[in-house]
């Protein structure tokens, strides 16, 4: 086929779905057609392009080099089309379409769940896809539209909107502190205690305890680490050590007496400590749904954190 401009957009859309789902059967379900129809459509697309797009095996589908090129460009075309359609149709109307949101696990589970549920209630026609993950770095590669991240500095390649600074706290159960009261009150000795903290590599390095002009550097040797802050919180309440967690994670249990702050007169530095909303660097292409979600999160989180 010489005139590629005559390619059927529906075939490209179906091809992208095949790759995203990994099977012809699942793609058929997504498009409400038969598996045979999907197979014939794929063959027709390959015939039009005069090239093989997918190598088929009994276990999986594997893209050819030409298939990879078509998939990446097809994905971009569909996103651009969705953005353009949303911008044209949703001005002054209820947002629709799909928004893919990535949030850190701790913030997502402990703070964002009710916020996102209320957002979905307010915009029922919007398809909200949420990833609870601490490891999404490349928004485009991960197909993420909006991300919330706690970082020291926002990535240069994205549009970053600062929400607030995040304070980190050390805390432990009353039982653990009763058994280790001397070390828990001394910034020179506290690193000897069992620490419960994130599995982020930064916690293998040093943190800084700051009190006015005094700064004490600590080299931690964690005894329990996880990306699940709720699990770490439970571990601390079960006398397993001193937890190093964001203040929003421990605030309720500290208020209820389940945990007590350790060295509260010190500010903890050396850790990623600013919450940002990140979007791709093409804000003019953002759909009405993406803009609505971003503005909603900004307003709600600033209220939660008192900023």
TrEMBL record:
Transmembrane segments: none
InterPro entries linked to this entry: LysR-type_TF_proteobact-type, LysR_HTH_N, LysR_subst-bd, WH-like_DNA-bd_sf, WH_DNA-bd_sf
Alphabetized SUPFAM superfamilies for the sequence: Periplasmic binding protein-like II, Winged helix' DNA-binding domain
Swiss-Prot/TrEMBL GO biological process terms: DNA-templated transcription
MF term (GO), any: sequence-specific DNA binding
Domain called HTH lysR-type: residue spans: 7-64
Keywords: DNA-binding, Transcription, Transcription regulation
Gene3D superfamilies cross-referenced by the UniProt entry: 3.40.190.290, Winged helix-like DNA-binding domain superfamily/Winged helix DNA-binding domain
UniProt family annotation: Belongs to the LysR transcriptional regulatory family.
Protein name, entry field: LysR family transcriptional regulator
Species for this entry: Advenella kashmirensis (strain DSM 17095 / LMG 22695 / WT001) (Tetrathiobacter kashmirensis)
Taxonomic path: Bacteria, Pseudomonadati, Pseudomonadota, Betaproteobacteria, Burkholderiales
